[in-house]
Design goal:
alpha+beta, 2 domains
Length: 149
């Protein structure tokens, strides 16, 4: 009994005009004991195997596989973008936290009695905001900026 060539049911279109499709072919290993070799095929319209796969699985089934594959890729891309954005936000927050730690060690800020400004520096939402507030407080502490009360 000889094994026949099979095509898996996961064939999908490679282009919109349906002249190329990709599929997996299983064929018996020569001299093997029931083993099979998997080949990924890119078939063009007019190839004999193209016609075999299309007649075996049908255009609607291949269309469905193609749509499922596209949906899966879109979902994966959205997930990857979300992960990237989350990592970016996390890195920005870490950078802000480290900048606040460094700023709190500056003697003029560390020894300042202006609790309102020190509190604003701690609550800053961005590195630039924190730097601007720190510069103001340092200027006040060194007497370069006068505070009107």
């Amino acid at each position: 009994m000889s094994l026949q060539v099979e095509y898996l049911d996961n064939a999908y279109w490679e282009n919109k005009d349906k002249t190329q499709l990709k599929c997996i072919r299983l064929k018996p290993v020569e001299g093997g004991k029931g083993g099979r070799k998997k080949d990924v095929l890119l078939l063009n319209k007019g190839d004999p195997e193209y016609d075999v796969v299309v007649s075996r699985w049908g255009v609607p089934h291949i269309d469905k596989n193609t749509q499922e594959r596209a949906d899966s890729k879109d979902k994966k891309d959205r997930e990857n973008r979300a992960v990237h954005e989350q990592r970016k936000k996390s890195a920005e927050l870490e950078q802000l936290f480290n900048a606040k730690l460094q700023t709190s060690e500056i003697p003029e800020i560390k020894n300042s009695t202006n609790k309102a400004m020190r509190s604003k520096i701690r609550r800053a939402k961005s590195v630039i905001e924190m730097q601007a507030l720190a510069a103001l407080l340092i200027g006040m502490e060194l007497g370069y900026i006068e505070v009107k009360k």
